[in-house]
């Protein structure tokens, strides 16, 4: 389900099967909710694929609809595998020209988006030319037409930063700030863009200088999405991790907690507000020296 970070697959098949079993058993959503001890609204979210049910909930669901042993085994296997989704970039880009619209749908459903990026400026903060050059480095490469569409869609996503009801937090390492996919003037414009966005009331940008003592070693960038879809705030939280060849989506509470802890530790090493903008100015001075 695009809106919650899942392409059609195991998660949606699980939701469809649970709905089908309930319909076959002739049980209403309200009655099923009573039998398994959850709210009717959560039954609806499970059947739409918005929320992944816990294993005890799936077991109780199967008992309530008198599912066969074979079906119960399939449901258990599907539930376990749905908590961590793996999508290869190659397969995703064969399915569609770019992924920016999928990402925007995820962001639209989140009350808070937290982005950690150790290698380059996060997409929501990129200037048009910086973004174009980043897309041009993708492997497998975009065609010229698809690259233009991806760039336009990324810039469209950035409009969310100016909606005061939305909340965005970024942690960016010095290495990412110094990443230069083009001439020095490109990076100067990009650093200025980061400084400008940092003044928005609903946006927090933390910068992690090289001289900070390491408190954790995240090997990849990650994004934590906190949504409003659950009775429990943690229910709607999931994490996306980008690697070289795959995109991982973690829904399991224990996995999400790992990234939440990493975020907390990393944010404690960051600098913010005026101190961060002064740091950006110092970096800009270093970049200007490259042109001399």
TrEMBL record:
Q: Where is the HTH cro/C1-type domain?
A: 18-72
Q: Name one GO molecular function term.
A: DNA binding
Note the InterPro entries from the entry. Cro/C1-type_HTH (IPR001387), DUF5753 (IPR043917), Lambda_DNA-bd_dom_sf (IPR010982)
An example Pfam family from this entry, by short name, is: HTH_31
Q: What is this protein called?
A: Transcriptional regulator with XRE-family HTH domain
